[in-house]
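Before relying on records like the one below, remember that each one covers exactly one chain. Contacts with other chains, cofactors or solvent are not represented anywhere in the record.
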Amino acid sequence: MIIGVPTEIKPQEHRVALVPGAVRTLVEDGHRVIVEKGAGLGSGYSDEAYADAGAVMIATHAGVFAEADLIIKVKEPIEPEYPLLRQGQILFTYLHLAADKPLTDALLASGCTAIAYETVVKNGRLPLLEPMSEIAGRMASMVGAVQLSKNNSGMGKLLGGIPGVSPARVVVIGGGTAGVNAARIAAGMGADVTIMEVDVERMRFLDATMPKNVKTLFSSPANIEGILPETDLLIGAVLVPGAKAPKLITRPMLALMKEGSVLVDIAIDQGGCIETSHPTTHQDPTFVVDGVTHYCVANMPGAYARTATLGLTNVTYGYLRKLAHLGVAGAAQADPSLLPGINVMDGKLHCQAVAEALDLPYTPLNF
C-alpha cells in the first residue's frame, strides 16, 4: 500500500503523523511511504531522517494526496484539502465531525473512508485520544496559571499561593483522562482543586488515588452554580465520544465567576462545553467575555509537538500497520476496536453520534 504523510497546514500545527522509525518499519513491511518535504520539521525530524528511513520525499501537498492510498494525518483536513480527497482513499486522523458539518459534507462527497482517531474504542477506552488528552490536560493547568497573571488580564493570583496566602481555586469539570491530568498538574502546583464528575464509582477511585489537595464533587447544574463564584481557574474537560460536547456552563452561569478569572475549554474540538467558547489558535489563544479570560485553542498539544508526535505515533502505529496490511474491512475484522472509528465510508455516515449532532442520515456498518 502507498501511505502518505502530508505536512499539517492547520495554523500553528507542528505535529507530524509518523516518526522516521515508524516509516522504516512500514517500508520493511513492503509498503511505499511518501512524505511531504518539511512535514517533520516542526517536531524536530529532518527530511534526511525520513529519506534515510526509506521514505520517498514529495515536494507538494497535493502530490502526497494524489499518490497515496492511505493518508495519515494529525488534524482534520481543512478547506483547501477537501478537493484532494478521493473515492476509495483511506484517511486516518483526528476528525471531530460533530462540531464540523462542512468537513463532514466534504468527506461524504469525496467517497473516501475516513477513520477518526477519537472514536476508536478498545475495552471502553479511547486509546488514540488518550495521549493528546494527557497533554491537553497538563497544558490546561499550565496555561491557566499563566493567564491568571495580571499582565495577561487575570486577577493576579498565583496558582499555588505562598505561605500565609491562600492558593487559587481550580475546578475541573470531567474526571476522564484530560480532567485527571489537569487536576494532577494543578495540585502539584499547590492549588486547591475540585474535580466535578457524574460517575460515583469514578469519584470513589479519584478520591482514593488523587493528591490530598484534590476533592471531588458531583457535577450537577446546582453544584456548578454554587462553586463558580469561588473559582479562579475553570477547566472544561468533558467528553462524549464522537458527539458534540454538552454546554455545561451557560452565559448566565459565566456571570457568577469573578472578574479576572480564567477558563480553559479542552472540549473545544467537540464544540466546547462552555456556551461562550469558540475555537482560538496558539497565535491568538484568548478572548474575554464578561471579565473572564477564555483559552480555547483547538489543537493544544500542537504546542508541544515533539512530545505529542511521539505519543501519537506510539498508539496509532499498530492500527496503521493493520490497515496497510489488511485494508479497512480486514483490519476491522481483525481488530473490532477500529469499527467505531470508521465515521465515513462510500459516501455514508457510520457514526451515530455525529449523525445525531448534525441531523444527517446514519447507516450502520456491515462488513
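The mean pLDDT is 96.
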